[in-house]
Amino acid sequence: MSVQSYFILGRPLNSVLAGSAVAIGALAALSAPLTTTQIWYIVFGCITTGFISAYGYAINDIFDIEIDKINVPHRPIPSGSVSLKGAKWFSVITLALGLLFAVLIDYIAVLLALSGGILLYLYGARFKRSGFPGNLIVALLAAIPFVFGGFVTQSYNTLIYPASFAFLINLGRELIKDIEDVYGDKLENVQSIALRYGVKPARNLAYIILLSLVVVIPFPIILGYYSSIPFFIAVLLIIGSILYTIPQLFNQPEDLIIRNTTSIKRILKICMTIGVFGFMSEGIIKLIQFTFK
């Protein structure tokens, strides 16, 4: 066992990216100049989310130990570089550290961090193979850091937009992923929408969600909350990309729909990146404007 193995267990890059979502959410929801206290709260929020994410990855690996022995035997737990007991202690410590930094902010931060921790545990322990309930949990977990950022800066009016974007695009992508995995999920007895009701109903639900994103994402511009050119370009690119994928899933036989999901997942991941860049750009421009006003 080594420190490096525990480091790998917490997936540091992914945890840092999750933490950075708090800063992006805080900047995107900005409606007034940042105070020194708020800057510290953003830092504490990023650290909290990073530790809670590391906890979640450890919990996931603990519950998936038997599957990982086959699929990813090089991971710390199945390879033996981290014991099961050590992984459990790692999860307890990272969760405790996350909550500790949340305490330095306020009770709402503690509630959000605790909610994230509970959802991560429930997902790993019970809902990972439950189908749509698991999809909802993944989408909620993607949205929480952006909500966290909005609460940290007390910008309640506009935190809904980055959080809604994260929730809807992740929920749509999870449903598309379920279609892609339909054959493997049948062997694992995963109760996905695609398996329980069919590929086409799952596709229809995914596109209801993604098209609702197309409707929702221009709202910050329409309502005058966001006005930067980068965000406007990001919105156009996201809407265009989602509409571009529709012919690949409609008026197609079921086997072709399943094959096309790989490219659609890739497009949606690009949309996520564009969206994050758009919200971050909007926040940075607001910050500069407030600084030099």
Structure overview:
This protein folds into 2 domains: 1-154, UbiA prenyltransferase (Tetracycline Repressor, domain 2, Orthogonal Bundle); 158-293. Helix content is 81%, strand content 0%. The protein contains 15 helices and no strands. The protein has helices at 3-9, 12-28, 36-63, 65-71, 76-79, 84-103, 107-127, 132-152, 160-180, 182-188, 193-196, 199-216, 219-222, 229-249, 254-291. The longest helix has 38 residues, at 254-291. It is flat and about 60 Å long. The N and C termini lie far apart (54 Å).
Q: Briefly, what is this?
A:
The chain has 293 residues and is mainly alpha-helical.
Alpha-carbon distance between the termini? 54 Å
Shape: flat
CATH topology group of the largest domain = Tetracycline Repressor, domain 2
Q: What are the secondary-structure elements, in order, as H or E?
A: HHHHHHHHHHHHHHH
CATH superfamily of the largest domain: UbiA prenyltransferase
**Stretches with pLDDT under 50, minimum 5 residues:** none
Q: How many helices in DSSP terms?
A: 15
Integer tally of domains: 2
Round the Cα radius of gyration to an integer and report it.
20 Å
